Amino acid sequence: METPNHDEGWRYERFALLPELDWVGVTEIEFEGTSRYLHIEAGLLPSAVADSTTYAGLDWASLGEGCRARLKCTPAAEGEFSFFLGSCRHRGFGPWRSGDQVFQTMLDEHLRNDSAFLILCGDQVYCDHPIGNLLPVLPAVHANRPPESLGGYFGKYRNDFALPNFRKVLRTLPVYMIFDDHEIRDNWAGYKYRARGASGPHEKWPRDTLEWGLRSYLAYQGSHSPVVSPFSKRRLAELASEDDLASHRWWYRFDWGCAQFMVLDTRSDRTEPGPPDAVLLGEEQMAALKEFVCEDTGCYKFVVSPVPIAPDTGSSSLKHVDTWRAYPEQRRELLDFIVEKAPIIPVFLSGDLHLSRVVSIRSTEMPSLYVPCVMSSALNWFIFGVQERGGPLGHLTGHLEDGPLPSTIDELKLRPRQREGPYFVTNETEALLYNNFVHVSVSADRLKVRTIRGNAKKQAGTWSFEIPRVRLENK
């Protein structure tokens, strides 16, 4: 890194681009000081000077805009800030090929409010969807299936991450990412994958598909986040050399200002739903989540769950249930723990359902309990998403449930009013079905959540909602 006039204060760091990760590389920059921003310039060193201790071989003055970035530094513990939340970013097809438009709106919004970072909580790339300009009306013509090679997964990422506005966002904001299902294949879960060469009645999909999807995720998304833990070129190289990424710990934590975040992996640890002891989060991840929730730091707590902990979508068949709803016993266990141990009730952030809304989880046994759940989706989707009950397309897409949550697997078959569990869901806002993202402002006394439509010229139907901090204090 260097300014064209070689100003003092710039630091240099050489790092390798890894062929195992589609020529992606990560470096660690030691940074001290009071500056609010970190300016970065990057370029390729010619092979003749790659092993040199000098950087004279790179013409810094000729670097294009795409080689420069300006990222915000973490504020003091008491600092107020805001951030963006989004998920489900489909590139689109034909006249619906507008997957990059939302990021220009996000950049414009950032210029107005100086947001700190962006959380992308799943389906940033639809690897199992075809790349093309035609609308996939006929499945026989446009089959949705995962790539058949690692290069195929890398190609999907190159295609989608090359979009110009998305690249500008990556150069402007720190971005914390986690996968959901479409980074690998639709509705994937860890238990469905067999070992290479093995077979079995409940092990349906090739292990290579999972490994390819996770390797491409590590290259293009995981490398942006503390999943590399700590950020370092050596750690990324170690992960790149592994041949069993499915066993890696993908969930992580980070702090920012007066808030702490835990980002969950809601896919890898799943066991097959149905038995009472079925789990969405494995033992280690669940223990880490409980530890995070019960830490008394005085900070806001945010839990990023790619699939929403609430609300549920109405379905009595486990075959079509892809959220926490299929694991009611573990959800009940987590909510019971929050009630008993959490000094500050966590706010759950999620996507997945192709709508944005705030709901809250309440309890008949503890009237003061208030667990906010913020959904933000979709950044771009070319048809429609889950509908509200009674909507014109509800019979095709399913609908959102409110009222009592099922506490056992048997209660999935019951209507909400027939259930006996103590937890129930209340809608706090309307649902926004248009392409959009969420902006969250964090201050000492309240959180403010508002939706922003992907098309800046069409903001009808958006909403804002405030969560006073006092409502999150578990008394």
Walk me through the structure.
This protein is α/β, with parallel strands linked by helices and 475 residues long. It contains 8 helices and 16 strands. Helix 1 (101-113) runs parallel beside helix 3 (164-172) and helix 6 (283-294) packs parallel to helix 7. The chain is globular and about 70 Å long. The model is unreliable at 1-7, 137-141 and 385-391 (pLDDT under 50).
Strand content: 15-25%
Radius of gyration: 22 Å
Number of helices: 8
**Average pLDDT:** 85
> CATH homologous superfamily of the largest domain, by name?
Alkaline phosphatase D (PhoD)
Uncertain runs? 1-7, 137-141, 385-391
Count of domains? 2
Second CATH tier, the architecture of the largest domain: 4-Layer Sandwich
Let me know the largest β-sheet.
Answer: 8 strands, mixed
Strand count:
16
SSE string, helices as H and strands as E: EEEHEHHEHHEEHEHEEEHEEEEE
**Coarse structural class:** alpha/beta
Fold-level CATH name of the largest domain:
Purple Acid Phosphatase, chain A, domain 2
Helix content: 10-25%
Main sheet: strand order: 6-7-8-9-11-10-13-12
Domain PhoD-like phosphatase metallophosphatase: 101-361
InterPro entries: Metallo-depent_PP-like, PhoD-like_MPP, PhoD-like_sf, Phospholipid_Metab_Enz
Protein name: Alkaline phosphatase D family protein
Pfam families: PhoD
